[in-house]
Every structure is written in C-alpha cells, then in structure tokens.
Specification:
The protein is of the alpha/beta class and 305 residues long. The chain contains seven helices and 15 strands. It is globular.
C-alpha cells in the first residue's frame, strides 16, 4: 500500500516521503480500515510516540497521522462492535502506525460509526479538534451555561471547535488570534475578538475559563485573567503561572467513542461546523505539509477519490 513515512526526526515535515508499506493485519481487538481521508497535526513530528514505541524502542520508518474516516475491511479475533463494510471515523493510538496510508489497523475502542450523510473529509477533520475541545471544555474545564470562555486561536482547527461547543453550552466566548483571523473567529461564533498583536489582552477582564492553544507569554498572561474558581485549560504543556484562585489543567486528548458520536451528531444537525483549511491527495501530501503560506484550519489528506 502507499503511505507517508518518516525516518528522520530532525528533518521535520521536509523528511516525509511517499513509500510502499505492507498492508497491516488485524490483531486481537483490531479493525483494519481502508482510509478514505486522514487528518494530520504538524506537531506530531515532535512527539516521542512518532519515533518510539511504549518501550522506547525505535519504530521507524513510521507512518504519521492519527485521524481517519474510512471503511472497515477486516477484523481481528474477538473484535466486536462494528462490521466489515461499515463507515467509521476515529482517533488512533499514538505509538502505532497512523492514518496517512491506504489502510490502518486500529483498536476497536478508538473507532465510532460515521453516518452515511457525513462526508469522509469532514469525518477525518473531527477526532483531534473535536475531542480536544470537548474534553477541555466539559471534562477538564467543567464549563457551565452562563460562564465566560477565552478561546485562544479561535480561527484555528481546535479554537473554532472550542468556540462553537462553548456557545452551544450557553457560554459567552471571547476569541483571540491575529488581526486577519477576526472575521473567521466571529463567523464561528465568538462574541468578541482580541487581536493579540494590537489589542491589550488584559482588557477582556476576568473570565471563567481560558482554553490555551498558544502557551508562552500568552499562557502566562491568561492565567492572571482567571476568576476565582475558574480554570486555565492548556494543550501546550504546563503553564509557568497559575491563577491566584483557580485551577490549571494541561491534558492530552484521548479517544472516546461516545464523545465522538456526540460531536458527529452536532455536525449532522448543523449545530457544528468543521474547519478545513486545505485538502490534498496522498500523492500530494508531502507538498501540502510543506507549504510556505499559512493555512488557517485543518489540512486533510483525501486518500481515496
């Protein structure tokens, strides 16, 4: 099968290559999925799990990508819950070969049914962005209706999901980003927008929840905006500054079938829009990941026409 492989961590996305790899076999509790569309997060190539397995052994050449939408083609011994021919989407294990390939072996617990009226491209854009936003807001941030949310990077793949899900939950959302991101953030539902290059972040006053996808100085300043009892949720690692009277939670997104099903349902009924910035084929994937211009939104690789 054709797949994107990486062998040199120092090379970054420039070290990606299209190659032939063996079609994976289904182990116990695995499904083999024919990938129709795949998502990719640029920071994956900095993750240790891209290069080594759980025992810290080198596993290159490895196949990156952890988001998929496709069709089940085989199942391993004892695997239940889905059937051959069923449309699925999911978030695959970090330390196994990923989804930038024509086929991938996935643990059953990492997959959810993909309804027939949701396009594969849309399905592949949901797992990381959707689950990250859901878990950050509701599991870790304990968001309640009537609270205020500061959503950094509100025009990006994760930030736009944070904005929409927070609004659906009855929160007041202040988005941030570059000046050029203002209209897009507002289109996704932000009620205010802070241009981080020209506006004063502190002018937003106190908020109940900050969802940080930036870190650094912005993360430090955001911690000081948390109201008593509020939460700073981060997906960019521990923050150096803690709220005076609040919580800090940094987390890594986890696969969750029931949450993914809830997210897909909101897409189906029009309450939630995905944020796709670019679509490319598997043959053109390396070039798509090495563009010089900034892409605001998720890059999706359409593996099958």
């Amino acid at each position: 099968m054709k797949a994107i492989v990486v062998t040199d961590q120092a090379a970054g996305t420039a070290g990606m290559a299209l190659a032939e790899r063996p079609v994976p076999q289904a182990a116990i509790n695995d499904f083999v999925v024919q990938v129709h569309a795949s998502g990719f997060v640029g920071t994956e190539l900095a993750w240790p799990s891209t290069w080594t397995d759980r025992l810290n052994r080198d596993r290159t050449p490895s196949i990156p990508g952890h988001e998929l939408a496709g069709v089940v083609t085989a199942l391993g011994y004892g695997t239940t819950g889905l059937s051959v021919g069923q449309r699925v989407l999911g978030l695959t294990d970090w330390t196994r070969d990923g989804t930038l390939a024509e086929y991938v072996a996935v643990e059953a617990r990492n997959l959810a049914p993909l309804p027939g009226d949701v396009d594969f491209t849309v399905g592949a854009s949901l797992p990381i962005s959707g689950l990250t936003a859901w878990q950050g807001l509701f599991e870790h941030g304990r968001l309640q209706a009537g609270q205020s949310v500061l959503a950094h990077g509100a025009a990006g793949a994760v930030g736009s999901m944070v904005t929409q899900l927070a609004r659906l939950a009855g929160a007041y959302v202040i988005g941030t980003g570059r000046a050029a991101d203002r209209q897009k953030a507002l289109d996704f539902g932000a009620q205010e927008f802070v241009d981080l290059e020209n506006d004063v972040l502190e002018d937003v006053g106190g908020v109940d929840l900050v969802f940080d996808v930036i870190g650094g100085d912005i993360g430090k300043r955001s911690a000081r905006l948390i109201r008593a009892g509020g939460t700073l949720v981060s997906i960019v690692g521990p923050t150096e500054v803690r709220p005076a009277d609040g919580l800090v939670v940094d987390f890594v997104v986890e696969s969750d079938r029931s949450q993914l099903t809830e997210i897909v349902q909101r897409v189906r009924d029009g309450r939630l829009r995905t944020n796709i910035g670019n679509i490319a084929t598997l043959d053109d994937a390396v070039a798509a990941f090495n563009q010089t211009k900034r892409i605001n939104g998720k890059t999706i690789i359409r593996v099958r026409p």
